[in-house]
Structure formats: C-alpha cells, structure tokens
Design goal:
single chain, 341 residues, alpha/beta, Rossmann fold, Glucose Oxidase, domain 1, seven-stranded mixed beta sheet, globular, disordered N terminus
Length: 341
C-alpha cells in the first residue's frame, strides 16, 4: 500500500487504542518542567499529516507533501485522512484513533493538521497525551487547531506551532506569490529551530511598549469557547495573539468581554491582534465601533504593548508562530517587532 496514502510500517510502532481506552491524562506539575520545546527537525525526520477536524481530499494535500519532502523530511499520511463523515475528516472514533496513533509514535517528529474547520473539540477529551509528553513533537495548524494548542499548553507546557496547514500550500510552487512563499517557508524555519523576527508596519491604534513572555493564542472564537474547560488558555505573563474570521463586530465584542471578564487580559505582557475578516453590519443595525476601538476599550486600564494588523490568521499573510516559546514584543512609532528568544 502506498505510504503516501496510509501509515504502514509506522503503525506497528504505535499503539492502537479502542474508544473506551482513550482518555485525557494531564500529567503532574513536576512533569510539565521536563519537556518544554520539542526537538527541532533535521533532514530525514518524519512529519505526519492528519485530519482531526474537517474533511480534505487526498489530492489537496499533495502539494504540501511534495514540498515538505523537498525540504528533506519524510512525510506520511494518517489512516483517517481522506475519509469523510459529513463535514468531518472521518468519524469521531476514526479521527481520535488516528491522532492518538500519531501522538504516541516516537518515530514521528511533527504532526501537521491538513486543515481546520470544525471537530477537534469533539475528540479532545478522548486523547491520552502520556506518550506525547515522554516524546514530544511539534503539533502544527491553526483555526480549529487552537483547541490542541491551548489544551497542550495548559496541561503539559509543551510548545506547538501555529501556522498554515496543507490546504494553504500553493498547487504550483513556481507560480506562488511572494507572500505565500515566505509564510510557507516560515514553517520550515520554525520547525528547524531558526531564530526569527517579524516586523510589522505601525498602526495608529497601537499602544507603544515592550514586553516578554511565552507566546500563546489562536482563534478568538475557540479561545472563548474553551473558557472554563480543561483546555482553557493560560495568559498570565504571556504575549497573547488573536485572530478570527467571518464574525460580526458585535460578536467579537462579546468574545472580548469574555476574555476581560475571565481575567485573560489582566496580566498580559503583550497583545497581538492579527487578521479579523469581518462580516458586514446589517444596514440600520451598525455596531458603531471598529475592531481597534473594540479591543482598546477592553485593555484601556492596562499598560502592556498592543500591536494591530499582525500577519496571522485566515489570510495569505499568515506566518508561523511558536506557541509556548518565549518571545519579545516591541511596539514603537516606526514598527512592531515580534522576536523569538
């Protein structure tokens, strides 16, 4: 059977779990200190592709597979990838079992989610992370994958990679726009351990300042939805980044109030606002505030730096960000700089 369609030899190295045996298993606090950053990848290491949320056709992942192989990595595709259960990439049982197998396999160095969509929250409590904590690997994706980022960071303190997924790789690399090329290459740079900094043009609504701390964040809707759960994001002393898509301003306002009322904005060392592709207000029912005003209203009593229009989110300019890794954020009148430390 073609290795590009299903896991073959690597399955034997993993553990097959039944639905009843897959349980969430946060480790004791003393174990959280043992592994913070997964090993960076080197040539010959293996990246696995899976679909823990929505469905994707196998043909759509080929450009990503081919490009990552050209970087010198081995690429395998999980058994659930290509399966379809209505909107999902396989049934809950199939998606959980596939992701479990990849989390457990010590021969896999990174797991790239093929796409987001919806579905991770349905299976997150079925997953057992004990082997993952013993042999941590990079978990890659964004949007619905925010569930995994937040859950792993909150419970195990292990770094993950917020970045584009397989469905964002250009079909023809030679015809890709420069912004596509640079953002895709940022995935390789992050996975191989390159230090990086991102410089962003100034925005009048920015708040000047400098802060340091682990970088956390992702999709605002998911972060608000996870409040009060075992996957709730921890923001104290962190630099928080947020993005969202297809929401109206009133709904964003509600979610930012959630962050404020749950204390997630009170002890930040920095706030990064990425892409927010908005649905237009209904005529005659305009919200009356911009995204800039909406955000600054919630953080006006604090003094940490705030950076708007950062290149992260549901857009072509969506750079790779290492969640859980210490960064510095400097916002001044000429630029905003996010740098890994």
């Amino acid at each position: 059977m073609n290795r590009k369609h299903f896991i073959s030899s690597l399955v034997a190295a993993g553990t097959v779990w039944s639905a009843s045996s897959i349980q969430a298993a946060p480790l004791a606090k003393e174990n959280l200190k043992k592994h913070k950053i997964p090993p960076f990848l080197k040539e010959g290491d293996t990246i696995a592709i899976t679909t823990p949320a929505s469905y994707i056709d196998l043909a759509q992942i080929q450009p990503a597979l081919q490009l990552m192989e050209s970087w010198g990595f081995k690429v395998i595709i999980g058994a659930a990838t290509g399966k379809k259960d209505f909107t999902y990439g396989g049934t809950d049982k199939e998606r959980a079992a596939d992701l479990q197998l990849l989390l457990d396999n010590p021969d896999i160095s990174a797991i790239m989610c093929a796409r987001g969509g919806y579905g991770l929250v349905r299976i997150i409590d079925q997953l057992n992370f004990r082997q993952f904590v013993k042999h941590p690997k990079w978990v890659i994706g964004f949007s619905d994958i925010t569930v995994l980022h937040s859950h792993i960071h909150h419970n195990f303190g292990i770094a993950t990679l917020h970045s584009k997924m397989c469905n964002s790789f250009p079909e023809d690399w030679t015809k890709a726009e420069p912004i596509q090329i640079s953002t895709i290459l940022s995935i390789r740079q992050a996975l191989t351990g390159e230090d990086f900094k991102y410089s962003v043009a100034p925005v009048s609504s920015n708040r000047m300042g400098r802060g340091e701390g682990p970088l956390v964040g992702g999709n605002l809707s998911l972060i608000a939805n996870l409040s009060g759960t075992s996957s709730d994001i921890d923001t104290k002393g962190k630099i928080l980044f947020l993005e969202d898509v297809n929401e109206r301003l009133y709904n964003l306002d509600r979610m930012f109030w959630n962050l404020k009322r749950t204390g997630k904005l009170a002890h930040l060392n920095g706030l990064i606002i990425g892409g927010f592709k908005l649905k237009p207000d209904e005529p005659g029912d305009e919200f009356g505030s911009s995204i800039y005003e909406l955000v600054m209203e919630k953080v006006k009593e604090h003094d940490f730096p705030v950076c708007f229009d950062f290149p992260v989110g549901h857009q072509r300019d969506n750079v790779a960000l290492k969640c859980g890794v210490r960064h510095s954020l400097e916002v001044n009148t000429t630029e905003s700089i996010l740098r890994s430390l």
